[in-house]
């Protein structure tokens, strides 16, 4: 048998801690650790993967306009009501982490005020005790009003807050820094911008160990391979010693998969689409997968289980 | 064809021109030069003029505001003449060289490279034209060989010559009582008897050499007897009225009458500089035997009126790299009537004779150790190598470092800000202008300093966005955020001198193009910057370039500063060497033949590297270990 040549890597991906327990000054029941890989995905012979990829359930502060009925049905009465929706994810689907998108703050989708959203976060933190990922509405000007208030409301809970982009990162970085959270840095499928943004953020004083990269992904059939290769290049750079690239990835699998025409063609197909997109991105090195359908989450979790079991065999 | 009279103000110059011609061409015909960075595509908006009276056809554009339209502003490159017109040209729409009215020429001080090892060789003195005084023996019945053979016998060689010399020979020799001066020139290895003059004129043997740049034309008068430089002059290349980069010039050359138009502009400029130099030194055009040119390949094509269109078409092949020696008069250049014109050879479509000359004058080709020559111009050229090999590449950097295409940019001439220092606490800006005049604008070295200082003081972030909260100096301008470097009260133009985010973006692209071309070229030959012993920086920065700041913004690689030498116009130095030494000319030919050209536009690596360099100093901070901003 031919000898297998083993790669020697210089550096591991940083470990980002999401959520603070009472011991850390927060009120979460546990901490979700992501990242820490010292090898390419699941090549256990070349390094270790101390933290398995995690799946975050995505929820919204309003009834999300663009989610198909199939998803609405999966959550039943709680759909659109973030508090009971969150509770359902945690109680019924054993969610370890939640991802709340504050779409209702967007000027076109309800234009909720910063105070309203901050109030919601306080209520949510009381309702569930899992760590939180909180996303703005995507409108830069509005996010610059809402996210500081949200950061403040969740002070000490070590959430993961997003998203910083190259043209709008300063306000968010300042808030995250002040209130002890982690940040998501988004780049448009571009390794250089990902890196530049990380440098700009760390220049403001936020440690690189507090950054999660959103490399921007595409669903199966919609640019998945581009996302895959960008993630692979970033990870290779990280393992080869580039500190500014050594951050875990977050991938919005649900958002992209359910946008696909095929996913909406007939019942059941969306779940498969979401699951397939997720499995490919797990192989690409995604650390946090934000997903929508409970069944797709379950299948992806099984897949992760399977992959992790090879560890040590 | 119907003709109309167009009068330009405040110049009060009028010109008759056909209906439907653009205001821009009317201005050029009137000898007034209007900015036209985009070369008449109607997209740069630098040629705004106001119509005072008359009727022009003004097509739609995306530049002018409704306010400007209502005030009768239009773009000179789009608006066409439909009646007699009175047109007002605002100061900011003028090309720099007409701003100050008369001062078309600027004496330039050639920057002398610091002495040291690795610099250009001292070539044997053997000028391209030499004069020999002959005191011929009169013919008699015994010694009755022909006049020409008699001449050759005295010369002890049989040069090539032309009929026009021979036709006048009989009378000339006898009128001059057999005492004449022969001018001999080297014509691609053949010695030519260029002319015969009565009496002894050996002391009056001069030549001129020129560097035809995309933006600047520089000429130098040299005494061929002793290689002494008598004077240097520079003028703007007025071809800029048809676009600031070589590609738009090539496109213009393909238009009807475009090629002769561009050709005439450069020939006129050359003749004008020669006239000035000759007058200043009380010489006669007949004293100039030879003229030698360097320049990028496109400029040489336009000089010789050769269609340059294939340069920009795949596979990017020029019509000539090695131009034959011709008579200067063939292209309308006025020196001695039978005077010869030489061009140093180019390497490829985008690495021209100016690079060959730069490699010659810096001695890059003869060093044992590895060296790089980086010529920072509109078309940046990089040569790398030593006495064993030479490779070169070109990068389209754009004219930002030459002060073009940026809001308050200007060439390195009187009134240009060339040094900047910013106090990080009080945000006070200290600056130094060329000639100590009141500041009119910013030249390349000023931009390099300003950006480095702005980064250092945290006024901009590493992506070049303004981040300062100082409302006194930072504001929202017409085209995005801008930083006021000099308030209007202190400026010579009466307007604030600003650096906009768009300017920073332009400079970022320019520096990324130069840096990435250099580093990809390095990787092509599997070298690292650490292995480089010398880096020569050439370019039209005037007399000053802060290497430290150029490294800070990521234009130059972060290696030991003592390895850098700023060599000014290395192309003109090389041209001069070739003018006074056939040995140098032969060496230049060897250099051009030996140099391998690497086309970067087809390299994926180049694009990747370029994208990674679009940051200050670079996305890969490990490449700039000594650069740290607070």
Binned strand content of chain B? 25-35%
Largest interface: A-B, 12 and 14 residues
* Estimated share of beta-strand residues of chain A: 5-15%
Secondary structure tally, helices of chain B: 16
Q: Which structural category do the helix and sheet elements of chain A fall into? A: alpha/beta
* Overall domain count of chain B: 5
CATH architecture of the largest domain in chain B: 2-Layer Sandwich
Biggest sheet statistics of chain B:
7 strands, mixed
Alpha-carbon distance between the termini of chain A? 19 Å
Helical content of chain B stands at 25-40%
Specify the oligomeric state: heterodimer
SSE pattern of chain A, N- to C-terminal:
EEEHHEHEHEHEHEHEHHEH
Q: Any low-confidence stretches of chain A, pLDDT <50, length ≥5? A: none
Q: How much is the radius of gyration of chain A in Å?
A: 19 Å
User: Order of strands across the widest beta sheet of chain A?
Assistant: 8-7-6-5-4-3-10-9
- The portion of residues assigned to helices of chain A is 25-40%
**Count of the separate structural domains of chain A:** 1
CATH superfamily of chain A: Dihydropteroate synthase-like
Number of helices of chain A: 10
Structural class of chain B: alpha+beta
Number of strands of chain A: 10
Structural description of this entry:
Chain A is α/β, with parallel strands linked by helices. Chain A has a single domain (43-307), classed as TIM Barrel, CATH 3.20.20. Chain A is built from 10 helices and 10 strands. Chain A has an 8-stranded parallel beta sheet. In chain A, helix 6 (191-203) links the parallel strand 7 (182-186) and strand 8 (211-214). Chain A is globular. With 630 residues, chain B is α+β, with helices and mostly antiparallel strands. Chain B folds into 5 domains: 3-93, Ubiquitin-like (UB roll) (Roll); 129-198, Roll (Ubiquitin-like (UB roll)); 206-343, Domain of unknown function (DUF4445) (Nucleotidyltransferase, domain 5), CATH 3.30.420; 360-396 and 508-623, Nucleotidyltransferase, domain 5 (2-Layer Sandwich); 400-504, no CATH class. Chain B is built from 16 helices and 29 strands. Chain B starts with a strand and ends in an 18-residue tail after the last helix. Chain A binds chain B through residues 166-167, 170, 190, 192, 195-196, 199-200, 203, 242, 244, and chain B through 461-463, 465, 467, 611-612, 614-615, 619-622, 629.
């Amino acid at each position: 048998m031919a000898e297998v040549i083993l790669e020697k890597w210089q550096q591991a991906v940083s470990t980002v801690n999401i959520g603070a327990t009472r011991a850390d000054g927060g009120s979460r029941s546990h901490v979700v650790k992501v990242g820490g890989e010292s090898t390419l995905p699941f090549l256990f012979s070349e390094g270790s993967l101390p933290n398995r990829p995690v799946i975050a359930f995505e929820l919204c502060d309003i009834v999300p306009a663009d989610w198909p009925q199939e998803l609405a049905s999966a959550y039943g009465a709680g759909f659109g009501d973030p508090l009971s929706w969150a509770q359902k994810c945690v109680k019924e689907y054993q969610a370890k982490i939640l991802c709340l998108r504050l779409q209702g703050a967007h000027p076109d989708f309800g234009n909720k005020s910063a105070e309203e959203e901050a109030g919601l976060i306080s209520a949510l933190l009381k309702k569930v005790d899992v760590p939180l990922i909180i996303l703005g509405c995507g409108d830069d000007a509005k996010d610059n009003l809402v996210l500081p208030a949200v950061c403040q409301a969740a002070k000490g809970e070590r959430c993961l807050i997003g998203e910083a982009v190259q043209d709008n990162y300063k306000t968010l970085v300042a808030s995250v820094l002040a209130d002890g959270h982690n940040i998501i840095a988004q780049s448009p499928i571009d390794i250089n911008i990902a890196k530049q943004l990380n440098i700009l953020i760390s220049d403001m004083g936020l440690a690189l160990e507090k950054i999660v990269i959103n490399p921007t992904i595409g669903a199966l059939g919609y640019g998945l391979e581009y996302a895959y290769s960008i993630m692979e290049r970033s990870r290779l750079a990280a393992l080869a010693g580039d500190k500014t690239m050594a951050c875990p990835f977050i991938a919005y699998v649900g958002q992209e998969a359910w946008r696909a025409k095929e996913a909406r063609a007939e019942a059941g197909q969306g779940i498969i689409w979401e699951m397939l997109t997720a499995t490919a991105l797990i192989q690409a090195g995604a650390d946090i997968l934000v997903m929508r359908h409970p069944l797709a989450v379950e299948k992806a979790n099984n897949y992760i289980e399977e992959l992790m079991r090879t560890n040590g065999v | 064809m119907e003709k109309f009279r167009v009068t330009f103000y405040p110049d009060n110059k009028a010109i008759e021109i056909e209906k439907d011609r653009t205001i821009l061409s009317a201005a050029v015909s009137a000898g007034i030069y209007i900015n036209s960075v985009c070369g008449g595509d109607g997209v740069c908006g630098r040629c705004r003029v106001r119509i005072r009276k008359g009727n022009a056809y003004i097509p739609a554009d995306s530049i002018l505001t409704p306010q400007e339209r209502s005030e009768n502003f239009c773009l000179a490159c789009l608006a066409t003449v439909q009646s007699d017109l009175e047109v007002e040209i605002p100061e900011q729409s003028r090309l720099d060289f007409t701003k100050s009215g008369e001062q078309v020429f600027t004496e330039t001080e050639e920057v002398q490279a610091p002495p040291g090892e690795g610099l250009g060789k001292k070539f044997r003195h053997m000028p391209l034209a030499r004069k020999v005084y002959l005191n011929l023996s009169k013919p008699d019945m015994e010694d009755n060989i022909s006049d020409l053979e008699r001449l050759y016998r005295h010369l002890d060689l049989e040069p090539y010559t032309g009929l026009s010399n021979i036709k006048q020979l009989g009378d000339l020799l006898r009128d001059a009582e057999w005492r004449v001066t022969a001018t001999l020139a080297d014509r691609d290895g053949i010695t030519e008897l260029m002319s015969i003059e009565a009496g002894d004129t050996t002391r009056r043997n001069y030549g001129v050499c020129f560097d035809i740049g995309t933006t600047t034309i520089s000429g130098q008068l040299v005494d061929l007897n002793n290689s002494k430089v008598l004077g240097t002059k520079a003028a703007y290349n007025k071809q800029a009225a048809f676009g600031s980069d070589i590609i738009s010039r090539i496109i213009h050359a393909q238009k009807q009458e475009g090629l002769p138009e561009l050709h005439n502009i450069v020939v006129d400029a050359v003749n004008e500089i020669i006239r000035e130099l000759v007058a200043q030194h009380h010489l006669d055009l007949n004293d100039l035997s030879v003229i030698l040119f360097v320049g990028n390949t496109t400029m040489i094509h336009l000089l010789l009126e050769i269609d340059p269109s294939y340069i920009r078409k795949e596979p990017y092949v020029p019509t000539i790299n090695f131009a034959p020696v011709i008579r200067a008069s063939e292209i309308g250049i006025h020196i001695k009537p039978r005077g010869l014109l030489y061009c140093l050879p180019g390497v490829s479509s985008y690495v021209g004779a100016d690079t060959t000359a730069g490699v010659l004058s810096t001695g890059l080709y003869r060093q044992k150790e590895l060296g790089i020559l980086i010529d920072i111009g509109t078309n940046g050229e990089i040569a790398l190598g030593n006495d064993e090999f030479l490779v070169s590449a070109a990068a389209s950097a754009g004219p930002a470092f030459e002060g073009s295409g940026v809001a308050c940019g200007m060439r390195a001439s009187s009134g240009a800000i060339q040094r900047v220092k910013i106090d990080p606490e009080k945000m006070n800006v200290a600056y130094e202008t060329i000639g100590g005049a009141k500041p009119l604008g910013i030249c390349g070295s000023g931009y390099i300093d300003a950006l480095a200082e702005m980064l250092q003081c945290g006024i901009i972030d590493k992506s070049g966005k303004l981040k300062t909260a100082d409302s006194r100096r930072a504001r929202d301008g017409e085209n995005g955020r801008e930083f006021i470097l000099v308030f209007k009260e202190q400026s010579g133009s009466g307007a604030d001198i600003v650096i906009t985010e768009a300017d920073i973006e332009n400079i970022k692209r320019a520096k990324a193009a130069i840096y990435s071309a250099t580093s990809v070229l390095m990787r092509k030959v599997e070298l690292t910057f650490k292995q480089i012993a010398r880096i020569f920086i050439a370019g039209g920065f005037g007399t000053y370039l802060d290497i430290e700041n150029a490294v800070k913004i990521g234009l130059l690689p972060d290696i030991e500063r003592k390895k850098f030498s700023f060599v000014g116009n290395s192309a003109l130095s090389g041209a001069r060497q070739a003018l006074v030494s056939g040995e140098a000319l032969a060496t230049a030919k060897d250099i051009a033949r030996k140099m391998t050209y690497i086309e970067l536009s087809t390299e994926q690596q180049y694009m990747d590297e370029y994208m990674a360099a679009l940051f200050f100093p670079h996305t890969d901070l490990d490449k700039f270990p000594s650069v740290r901003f607070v």
